[in-house]
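Colleagues,

Please find the record for the two-part complex below.
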Amino acid sequence: MIGNIIKKEFKELFTLATLIPIIVIAIVFASVGQTIGNIGETMEEKPVIGIVDMDDGDFSDIAMSVLTEKAEVIYEGSDSEEGLEEVREENGVALLVIPENFSQNIYANNPGEIGIYWIMRGAGIMDSISSGVVEGLIQAVNQGISTKLIQEDSSYDPALVLAPTQRVETTFFKGKEIEGLSSSQLSNILSSQSIVIPVVVMMLIIMAGASVISSMGMEKENKTLETLLTMPVRRSHIVIGKIVGSALVGVIMAAIYMIGFSRYMSSFQISNINLADFGLALGMQDYLLVGISLFVALLAGLSLCIVLGTFAKNYRSAQALVFPITALAMISMFITMFKDFDTIPVVLRILVFAIPFSHPMMAMRALMLDNYSLVIGGIAYTAVFTVIMIVVAVRIFNSDRLLTGSVQRRVGLGKLVWGLRR
Amino acid sequence: MKAVEVRELVKDYGNFRALNGISFEVNEGEIFGLIGPNGAGKTTALRVVATLLQITSGSVTVFDYELPKEAGEVRKIISYLPEEAGAYKNLTGKEYLNFIAKFFGEGEKFHDMVRRGWEISNLGKRINEKVDTYSKGMTRRLLVGRALMVNPRLAILDEPTSGLDVVNAQEVRRIINSSVEAGVAVLLSSHNMLEVELLCHRIALINDGKIVASGTAAELKKEYDAGNIEEAFVKAIK
C-alpha cells in the first residue's frame, strides 16, 4: 500500500518540468566555476612580482632570497618606474621596493621600509587572492629578518624583532593611484559592494520575479486574466501595470531584506577607512545612477518574468518557471561577486553584460572607480532589453497563447501572427 | 441592429479545428444559448466574441463593430463571465467591484455601478469580506454582479450556473432574466440543456465545432419530435 503511494508521489513530483531547471542550474554552476577558476590553484601559483633593491645590504639579501624563491620575479633592478611598467605588462601583482637605507635602519633599531606598489586589476573575491599570497611573502621576509636579528644579537628592541619591516603602500587600480592603502585593504572596502549588492539584487529579482510569475499562474488558474483581458483597457497597460505593481512590491521586499543583510555583513567589516580620503566616495549623482540601474534592472527582470509567466498554466506550473530567472540572477551574482568585470574572460563578460541583473550588481563599484561608461551603458542596454520584453509580452497578450498556450497561424503565409494591434 | 452576428466562423488550434464554420445571431434584449457537450466548441465561440481569441476565418460583429479590428470598441460594451472563474482572493468583494468599475466609469457613474454590483450579487455585509472567505455560490454571485453592473449591451456568460447548488443556480438565472428585462442581450453557453430550455429565448445546438440545429426550444422539440431539448439534441447529432 505504502509503495503505491510512494510511487504515485514520485511520478507526480519527478517530472521533466522539475528536473530540467535543476539540471540547467547544476550545469551553469559547474561551467561558471570552471571558467572563474580554482582558488586552490591560484593560491599555489607563485605570484608575479618585480623587485627594486636599492639597498644591497644583509637584510635586503634575506628579503631577496625569500622573494626570489617563493615568487616569480619578472623584474629585478633599480628603476622603480621601469619595474612598475614591467609588472603591469606581465600582469604582475606588485612591485616591491627596498630603499637604500633598509638594512642600516634595521641595524639602528628602526623598522626597514618596504615600498609596495600594488597593481590591482579587479575587486572581486577571486581577484585579491594573489595579493594575499604576496602579503604572505612579506611575512616570510619578516620572519627571515627576525631570525637573523635573534641569531646575531639579542639586544635588539623586541618590537623590532617582531616587526622588522614596515610597509609604505600604494595601490594602482583602474587608473587610480591610491596611496596608503594596500590592495587587500581596498578589496576589503569594496567587499561590501562585492557581496551585499549582488546578493540583495539577486534576492530582489527572484522575489519580485517569483511574485509576478505566480500572479500570472494564479490569474490563469482563477480565470481572472480572462476577465481582465475583456476590460476596455490596452494590453500594454495591463502588462505595464503588472510590472510596475510587482516592482513596487519587490522594492519593499528588497529594502527589508537589505536592512537585515547589510547589518549582517557590517559585522564582518574590519576597515574603518574613510572612502572620501581616497577619492572612492560616491556623490548624489552616483547614488542616483545606482538607483536608476537597480530600478531598470528590476523592470527588465519583471518584464522577462511576464513573458515567462505567459507559459504558466496554473500556480503550480508557475513555480517551475521561476527557475530560469533564479539561474540568471545567480550567475550574475556569483560572477560579479568573485570576479571583476574587467578580469573575466570575454565570453563571460558578454554573458554578464547580457544579463540585465548584472548591471546594478556592478554599478556601485564601477562608480567608485569613475567607470561611468559601464554604468550608463548598462542602464541603456537594460532599458532597451525592458522595452523589447514589454513589446514581446504585449504581443503575447494580444495572441491566443495566453489562453491556449499556442499562437494563431495565418493560413497560407505560414508565419506566426502575434495578434492584431488592439 | 443585431447584438451579435457570427458568419462561417472557423477557429483552429494548430491542427485541431475547434469551430467549423458556425453561424448564428443574437438579437437585442434576447438570451441566446449555445448548448452542447464538453468540448463541443461553446467556450471557444464565446471567447472569440469576447475578443479573447483570434479568428481563423469567417466574421464576427458585435453591435456592428467588427472583430478583431474594433476589439477595443467591443470591449466597452460587453461583459464576459468565464466558466468557473474566480476573483482576486486578497480583495474584498467591494474592492473587486471597485477594481472592475474603474475600467468603465468615474464619479457618480462609478459609484452607481458598484452599488448595482452589490445589489445584484446580494452579498449584504459579506461584500466587505475577502473573496477568499466566500463559498462557491457567493463568488459566482459576485462575478455575475460584476458582469452585469457595468450595464453591458451584451453579456457573454460561459456556463453561468456551473457547479452551483439549486438555490444559487436559481438566483443566478433570476439575475440574468432581470438584466434582459433592462435591455441587455445575453449570449450564454451551457451543457445543462434543461436549464437552457427554461432560460433562453433561442438556442443553437453545437457539436464537434458545428451548429447542428437552432431555433426556440419549442421549434427544436417540434422539429425533432422530442419531449425536451436534451432529447432533441441527441436526435440532432445522430
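Strands of chain A lie at 48-53, 72-77, 94-98, 112-120, 165-173, 176-179.

Comments are welcome before we finalize the supplementary table.
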